[in-house]
Design a protein that fits this description.
Strand content: 15-25%
CATH class of the largest domain: Alpha Beta
Largest sheet: 5 strands, mixed
CATH topology of the largest domain: Nucleotidyltransferase, domain 5
Shape: globular
Helix content: 40-55%
Structural class: alpha/beta
Bound molecules: adenosine-5'-diphosphate, magnesium ion
CATH superfamily of the largest domain: ATPase, nucleotide binding domain
Order of helices and strands: HEEEHHEHEHEEEHHHHEHEHHH
CATH architecture of the largest domain: 2-Layer Sandwich
Number of helices: 13
Distance between the termini: 37 Å
């Protein structure tokens, strides 16, 4: 295997903090990592320097393919990844004008996600690592989302508190130091993005629902419909969005609201419902973030994942961060939804720390991101059930 550090310019970056060395004593050289992401419905490849600078990032989205089904169809997704993986990786190198042999390592998403989708990326990345004789690491997709703030923000100060909200996940993590994660809160049922998507589908608005609901919400009254913030009876700071979905269904039925048909202009009552729904989701997410923060004393708040594109969520998180006296970092919108740059950034920290995966690296559909204070047993005893 080739060394990870190539000779080159001396470079001080977040990696220095990440690998636990002191800033003025260690010289870190330029590290170039190829990231590959195929966990769900995006085939993505990116070349990232030092875990902080995107040299190229290519994303082939399958939204158009799945749109008419109102959600991702796993079998179609994996076939599409097979078609796209070779040209997408090639395009990442072409755009960067870099030869494949010049990378220092590879990082690939190993889970959580759809097994057929994950396997395409994992098999391809392993074959490439073997052929090029380069080190490879597996990356947890959720950890990738957390690292999406490594670009275009100052370095994260630890401890950090991260809210990861996407189509498949809704978690708050306490991160005392890089690579250490404790789940502080999570959803008991639907993910927040999933709730956006389901409510949009119910209202005849199209897929993915998040951006459409946000656009309509701008013209709606968030106080028009009063939805209660879901709280857990056992007092844990967990989320629940399926009850909210039911409340929206009931509201539609009881008021005789007519879903939008054939792309017609949504009526004002639909805009009001969109605004009210978005408002309660944002208050639930940010309220919980603010409530748990004092227990962990974060120096940075991170809000990442597809739903972090949402302007109302950003605004509320920024206000909460101000009250807590810490900065809030968000990925820029193109890095909020699935991409490979964030996977390369997370993988760079592992590669620099000396982590190496063998060629037995495999997809892990239910991979968890928690390596501190494992409380699974205690939760099981308390009868708490999580769907995701
Ligand atoms: P996953 O990897 O879990 O499928 P992504 O990170 O790709 O999810 O994010 C996709 C999710 O983000 C979808 O559920 C989508 O509706 C949601 N989303 C995207 N933009 C917005 C927005 N502006 N407001 C709310 N949700 C959004
Ligand atoms: Mg994602």
């Amino acid at each position: 295997m080739s060394p990870l550090y190539t000779s080159g310019e001396v470079y001080h970056s977040q990696l220095i903090h990440a690998s636990g060395h002191r800033l003025n004593t260690v010289r870190i050289y330029i590290v170039l990592v190829l990231g590959i992401e195929t966990s769900c419905d995006e085939t993505a490849a990116a070349l990232v320097r030092d875990g902080r600078e995107i040299v190229s990032s290519v994303i082939a989205s399958q939204i158009a393919l799945h749109e008419r089904f109102g959600g991702v169809v796993p079998e179609l997704a994996s076939r599409e990844h097979l078609d796209k993986i070779v040209p997408v990786v090639a395009e990442a190198f072409t755009r960067a004008a870099i030869d494949m042999t010049n990378i220092d390592g590879l990082a690939v998403t190993v889970g959580p996600g759809l097994v057929g989708s994950l396997l395409v990326g994992v098999s391809y990345a392993k074959a490439m690592a073997f052929a090029l004789n380069k080190p490879i690491v597996g990356v947890n997709h959720i950890e990738g989302h957390i690292y999406s703030v490594a670009f275009e923000n100052p370095p994260v100060q630890y401890p950090a508190l991260a809210l990861v909200v996407s189509g498949g996940h809704t978690n708050i993590f306490h991160i005392p130091s890089p690579g250490k994660y404790k789940v502080v809160a999570r959803t008991r049922d639907d993910a927040a993005g999933e709730a956006f998507d389901k409510v949009a589908k119910m209202l005849g608005l199209g897929y993915p629902g998040g951006p459409i609901i946000e656009r309509l919400a701008r013209e709606g009254n968030p106080q028009a419909v009063r939805f209660a913030i879901p709280r857990m009876g056992d007092g844990l700071p967990d989320f629940s969005f399926s009850g909210l979905k039911t409340a929206v269904t009931r509201h539609v039925r009881e008021t005789g609201m007519r879903p939008v048909q054939n792309g017609e202009q949504p009526a004002q009552n639909i805009k009001d419902l969109a605004a009210s729904f978005q408002s309660v989701v944002v208050r639930s997410l940010v309220g919980t973030l603010e409530r748990v923060a004092p227990d962990f004393g974060p120096r940075t708040l991170i809000v990442a994942g597809g739903v972090a594109c949402n302007g109302a969520l950003r605004e509320a998180s920024r206000t909460a961060a101000e009250r807590l006296g810490v900065p809030a970092y968000f990925p820029s919108p193109h890095l909020s939804t699935d991409n490979a740059a964030m996977i390369a950034a997370a993988g760079t920290v592992k590669l620099v720390a000396g982590e190496r995966a063998g060629l037995d690296l495999n997809a892990d559909v239910t991979l968890r991101l928690q390596n501190l204070d494992l409380e699974e047993e205690a939760l099981k005893r308390a009868g708490v059930r999580y769907r995701l």
